[in-house]
Design a protein that fits this description.
This is 2-octaprenyl-6-methoxyphenyl hydroxylase. This protein is of the alpha+beta class and 395 residues long. Helices cover 36% and strands 30% of the residues.
Length: 395
């Protein structure tokens, strides 16, 4: 029976980022890392109008720079130079700018396919190997690790199993790890949009009584739309013909980017805040959406998961020669506890505050946006949250 030091279950963006963060130190220690992933990574990047994207914070850029990957990622990363925050039907707005914050960009929007390609190409094959396409169907705890059974009936053992298989993790449930969930009773409609005017690196956060929307700059003058609506209304929007959809979107967003000319494929994702009740056990760590799944409108989910992955790698490489001891994993969990609590709370409260149609709440957020533009300390605090720096003691 084969044995590896670390088995990362889920080779998506979070799992691959963890492998990348570990590989240099793992090579020095003689560790072997196995990525187990059901969907094979492509041999080459294929541009697509409809590609899904992620918003990387400035803090995420700093992590990938330290890992030597940012130069590759930046070739197709669209900088967010400004963020325009507004509340539909009310006078107040807030504007954040990279220049005011003294950074080259507040964040970056990157197609997931491109980010994945950069990650996979950055992995050292002498340290990191793949089982792909493959799925883990069973996890059995051992005194010194885990025994994993794959869907082709292969069995292997590992010193440390890292569960990064997504928000609907069946293995998390199989292990008896409960979750705390708070449904938003909303769905996110995701699509790419082409406006008639240049976006010039500006991102828009637009809040309405029916739910928030974000329009983020992409390469080739496209924009990534995240439009949050009640479930039935989101389904109605998804079913509209292109002309009717663009007309309704235009009515809500306005003409800040001119006429909205084209929309790509539309996808719906029901939204629920999910947090795993345990993130570490002896020889087990849980990362990514399997650990915490956030509302997408604040753009914090992947960035928090990347900080978790980076912190876990640092803890493991500072720990014992054999990974997986509970004390090291608990120290990692304590280190990230405040970051997770503040980021999840920030994302959840922004979503609930700006999703409410109650008049007093609407008045309060209207004054809050006005205050952001008038009070530099408050504006800087909000900007640091958006850049993924607000919860870091070293930033």
């Amino acid at each position: 029976m084969s044995r590896v030091n670390l088995a990362i279950i889920g080779g998506g963006l979070v799992g691959a980022s963890l492998a990348l963060a570990l590989q240099d130190g793992a090579k020095a220690r003689g560790w072997k890392i196995l990525l187990i992933e059901p969907f094979a990574p492509g041999d080459s990047y294929q541009p697509s109008y409809d590609a899904r994207s992620s918003a990387l914070s400035y803090g995420a850029r700093q992590i990938y720079q330290r890992l030597g990957l940012w130069q590759a990622i930046s070739r197709r990363a669209e900088p967010i130079k400004q963020i325009h925050v507004s509340d539909r039907g009310r006078f107040s707005t807030a504007r954040l700018s990279a220049m005011e914050e003294g950074v080259p960009a507040l964040g970056y929007v990157v197609e997931n396919a491109w980010l994945g390609q950069c990650l996979w190409q950055g992995l050292d094959k002498d340290v990191v190997s793949w089982r792909c396409p493959a799925e883990v169907t069973r996890m059995e705890p051992l005194p010194d690790g885990y025994r994993l059974t794959l869907n082709d009936e292969t069995v292997l053992e590992c010193d440390l199993a890292v569960l990064a298989d997504g928000g609907r993790s069946g293995l998390r449930e199989q292990l008896g790890i409960g979750v705390k969930s708070r449904p938003y009773n909303q769905s996110a409609l995701i699509a790419n949009i082409t406006p008639s005017e240049a976006h010039n690196g500006e991102a828009f956060e637009r809040f309405t009584d029916e739910g928030p929307m974000a329009l983020l700059p992409l390469p080739d003058n496209r924009c990534a739309l995240v439009w949050t609506r009640a479930g039935m209304d989101a389904q109605r929007l998804a079913n509209l013909d292109e002309r009717s959809f663009l007309s309704e979107l235009q009515g809500v967003f306005g003409y800040r980017l001119g006429t909205l000319k084209q929309v790509g494929a539309r996808h719906l994702y029901p939204l629920t805040l999910v947090e795993a009740e345990e993130q570490v056990r002896s020889h087990l760590a849980i990362l990514g959406n399997a650990a915490h799944s956030l509302h997408p409108i604040a753009g914090q989910g992947f960035n928090l998961s990347l900080r978790d992955a980076n912190a876990l790698a640092e803890a493991l490489l500072a720990g014992p020669a054999v990974p997986g001891d509970l004390a090291t994993l608990q120290a990692y969990r304590e280190r990230q506890r405040m970051d997770q609590t503040l980021t999840v709370g920030f994302s959840d409260q922004v979503t609930r505050l700006f999703g409410s149609a109650q008049p007093l709440v609407a008045l309060g957020r209207n004054m809050g946006l006005l205050g952001l533009d008038l009070l530099p300390p408050a504006k800087r605090w909000f900007a640091r949250q958006a850049m993924g720096l607000g919860t870091r003691p070293d930033a």
